[in-house]
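Researcher: Here's a chain I'd like modeled. Treat it as a single chain, no partners, no ligands.
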Amino acid sequence: MLGFICGLALIAQAEGSVVQKELPNGAKFRIEATPGTGTLMVALYASEAGLPNDGGVPGTRHLLEHLIAKGGDRLLDTKLESVGLSLTAFTERDGTAFVVMGSSRQSVLAIESLRDLLEPLRVDGGELEVELKILEQESALRADYEPFLDRAWLELFEPGVGSVFGDLKGMAQLTPDQLMGGAEALMNSGGLTVYVRGDVDADVTALRLTEVLNSATRGQVNFAPREVLESIGRKETVAGKGRARAVVAAGLDRPMTLARLGVALAIMRLEPGFEVVYEPSFDRGPVLLYSRSGEGFGALEKYDQAGLSRFAALARLQALRLVNGWKLEGPRFGVLRAKKLRQAAAFNLDQLESTARGLTDDEIWSALQDWRGGAMHLEGTR
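Model: Modeled as a single isolated chain. C-alpha cells:
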C-alpha cells in the first residue's frame, strides 16, 4: 500500500485556456480551463514556510488546518455540501492544503470559499479543547509506518522537520492568541498558491481569484531548500513496530527520484510485506521502505547485475504507474500542481512520464545501491 495514494475520481482531460499570475502581495495562481467537463477543482496551498517548524510546537499547522477549514462562521463545510461541493483539508511537510471540488455551476461559491478560509482566525478555549480531542482520536488511526517516517524527516535534514501530526501535550499548551497569530502567519499572502482546474471562464475566474487573494493578510515568506544530512551508515531506533530504510529524494524534477521510487515499488511488488511512502514534492524529502514484520530487507541483496535487465524493466513500469496515478484528478492532483507552481514553476509535469519510461539500467542499478548501502536504517523497538 502506498502512503500517498488515495481513491480519486478521474476527470476528462480537455484543452482550454490557461491563466497564470503572481500578485504584488506574493500570492500565485494558475487556472486551467477544461470546457465541457462540468467539473471544478480549487486547491489552496499554504506553504509551511509561512510558519516554519510549526512555530516551535510540532503539529501546530495540523491543528490550524482543523480550525481554518471550518471557515469564519464555522459553517463552511455545510454551505459547500448544500450545493454539492466538497472540502478536503490536509497537512503535509511542504504545507497545508484546502481543496474544493464539485460542479462548475458552483464556481463562484467555490472561489468565494477561499475568502472564508483566509479570514482572520477566531478561536476560544472551548473550541480548542474539542479539536484537541479530535486529534487525540486521530492519533489512534495513525499508520504503523508513521513514527519511522517522522524520524526520517527529523534526522535526514537540517533543520529537522518535525511530525506533521505533532505533539498533543505541546499543542495543549497553546493559547487561542498563539493560534490566531499562527494562522495569520501560515495564511499570509506570500506563501499562498491556488490551482484551479475546471469548466470555467479562465479570465473571469482570474479576476475573482485576484480579488479574493488580495484580501489575504499581506506578508513575505522565505523559501529555502532543505539541507540534507549524511545518511550512509546511519542507524536510528524508533518507538514503533517493524523496520524501515529511508533514502533522500531530491525532488520530482530529478530523474533519480523516480529511479529510487521505482526500485522501492519493484521491491514491494516482488517481496511481500513492504510499504513505500513518499510525499510528492519538488523539494527534498525522504522515501521510506517499511516492513511491519521487520523482515525482508535481506532480499535487496539478491538482485544483481545478472538479472538487472528484468528488474530494471519492472522498476520502470512501477515508476510509470506511479506517475500515471498522479494524473488521477482529485485533491492530491490539485495540490501537487499548486506545489509545482511555487517550487518548480518552469518544470513540465508531462515530462514525468517520459522520464519514467527513459530510466536507464544504470540509473536503476544506482538507485538499488542507494537502497542497499546509502539508506538510513530505522529499527523499531517494539
